[in-house]
Amino acid sequence: MLGGEKLVWLCGRDTANINPKTPLKLNLDEIYKKIEKQYGVRVKSHLAIMFDYKGFEVSLFNNGRMLIKNINDEDSALRKYREILNALRIG
Hints:
The protein is α+β, with helices and mostly antiparallel strands.
């Protein structure tokens, strides 16, 4: 699953918008249970969960799209994306 993601910079290059190679179908209710135990959840809806992850503000959408705020280069953004997916056991 990992590899082939598409990255676009938003908001003056401090927010990375990363889409998986193929859209995912995530169960955000199950993911929320994992996130709420370890990370600070800011907002949860049926479309996305916004949470804090090791100093980064992350928005995870139900199709696997992720916004990572406060990140400054493409390699770091892609590594952090994959790290978060692995931490949540997605993919």
